[in-house]
Amino acid sequence: METLLQQIVNGLVVGSVYALVALGYTMVYGILGLINFAHGEVVMVGALTALQTLLFLMGVAPDMAPLLKLAIAVLVAVPVCMILGFLMERLAYRRLRGAPRLAPLITAIGMSFLLQTLAMIIWGRNYHTFPQLISTDPLQPIDGVFITPVQIAIVIISALMMAGLILLVTKTRLGRAMRATAENHRVASLMGVDTNAIIALTFVIGAGLAAVAGVMFASNYGIAHYAMGFMPGLKAFTAAVLGGIGNLGGAMLGGIVLGLVEAVGAGYIETMTFGFLNSSYQDIFAFVILGIVLIFRPTGLLGERVSDRA
């Protein structure tokens, strides 16, 4: 029982990060019908930008409060990733809106490799240690179940950001414009909505969420490197498909469910395979789930809001 509860806690933590990244995938798909496979690299850029900012602050202001350093690092990483998201939409995707669907898909994959290569040139190929500015001393709320303050912060901040995004989309003028653009670009434009600006803002908001997710991921695992965004990005895409890509609630649900399945599976995979596999093979669960969903329920758990783009 202790193992199960511990894996549930781990699943909620990693699932929260997947959910934040999945929101970026699902927002862009809901409006453009585009799978932005370069979104995972935005996570990487956010983490490495925050790391660079922290190293700078540690050099010029070593006595600064750790939480203040981390807050400044996030405040630097988020705008950098937002600018990157805007440039990706403006330079790589805007001219391809009327092109066959294969063209933007290949472009997205190309952008992913381009960003990885640029990050490798700037930060090198080595793994970097991400400073642990929030305590990692485990707490034990239940006998045999441990959770660190970093993990608690990840879950709380993720929940607040997801709630804020839902309020933005459902309760503001910008949100109404985003929903109108997702429904029909041409009609929204006739009604006075600047669809180009709305699409760009969608990329910007998604990139901002990815930046925060990148800092969370690096803080939780204590490392950052140029290829760190690929696997979380792929799993977040799986989470978006699982929940129903194009549906914000589905992306959140898919992220949490995928995190729980992956964590619980990692805890019992050795038993289930009679010792043939161990927890290092936990990534297999994400791709098994992706295959099952695509075969038996391609619209995901909560369906798809933009059905004509399935």
From TrEMBL:
GO terms for cellular component: plasma membrane. GO terms for molecular function: L-isoleucine transmembrane transporter activity; L-leucine transmembrane transporter activity; L-phenylalanine transmembrane transporter activity; L-valine transmembrane transporter activity. The chain crosses the membrane at residues 12-35, 42-61, 67-87, 99-124, 144-169, 196-217, 250-269, 284-303. InterPro entries: ABC_transp_permease, BCAA_transport_permease. Pfam families: BPD_transp_2. Keywords: Amino-acid transport, Cell inner membrane, Cell membrane, Membrane, Transmembrane, Transmembrane helix, Transport. The keyword Cell membrane applies. The keyword Transport applies. It is found in: Cell membrane. One of its GO terms (biological process) is L-alanine transport. It is a multi-pass membrane protein. PANTHER family: BRANCHED-CHAIN AMINO ACID TRANSPORT SYSTEM PERMEASE PROTEIN LIVH (PTHR11795), HIGH-AFFINITY BRANCHED-CHAIN AMINO ACID TRANSPORT SYSTEM PERMEASE PROTEIN LIVH (PTHR11795:SF371). Belongs to the binding-protein-dependent transport system permease family. LivHM subfamily. This is Branched-chain amino acid ABC transporter permease.
